[in-house]
């Protein structure tokens, strides 16, 4: 092979190399790719805790609708300051330890907390009016939330504020999900004693103590059994009785 031929081959290889470099230019290490903005136009729910009012926004989180709980700013009293402190601490734990049956939290700060949108009385008032839960759905919620309770307790989170109003159906994957942790509590995982106690004047916490519960776990378990299991079973029985009465009337 002649020297002239060698030069032509080298030039051809250099052209190919330069084309490859130009094609890959946006991926240079010293210029990382820009991320898309998290919040873009779409549709979400904004809830104002001070007025109990709701409005809809054209924002979404990465294309997904979200629920924004606006805090009272500044908090009007010590109780509101404490509730915010409890929720902030718990949400930060859940952002590091997500669960498929707890709403996904996107952001929390001094002004608001953003979370996955679910069908609730506040976000969609007509949902539960038009869609009465069947016995099968109630039993599904009971079993799902029992697992959620165990998961939270392992993290040191005592939910305590158990009720069907705090469970919604996800608009993303259709799963039942728990939300709203400001009336909950935190324990030390070593001693199992309270680190952040639930507010005493909340019904479930006060009633659990009144009915003999002493430890954080006993209080949480009592609230779950009373508000989810007993209330759910009464709802199931009501459905059975209603169907029986209809059959008798026919």
Architecture overview:
With 250 residues, the chain is of the alpha+beta class. The chain has one domain: Transferase(Phosphotransferase), domain 1 (Orthogonal Bundle), CATH 1.10.510. It is 43% helix and 20% strand. The chain has six helices and eleven strands. The strands form three sheets. Strands 2-1-3-5-4 form a five-stranded mixed β-sheet, covered by helices on one side. The chain starts with a helix and ends with a helix. About 14% of the residues have low confidence.
Give the helix/strand layout.
Blueprint: H1 3-23, E1 39-48, E2 53-61, E3 66-70, H2 78-96, E4 105-108, E5 112-116, E6 118-119, H3 125-130, H4 135-154, E7 157-158, E8 167-170, E9 176-178, E10 185-187, E11 194-196, H5 203-210, H6 216-249
Parallel strand pairs: 1-3
Antiparallel strand pairs: 1-2, 3-5, 4-5, 6-8, 7-10, 8-9, 10-11
Helix pairs in contact: 4-6, 5-6
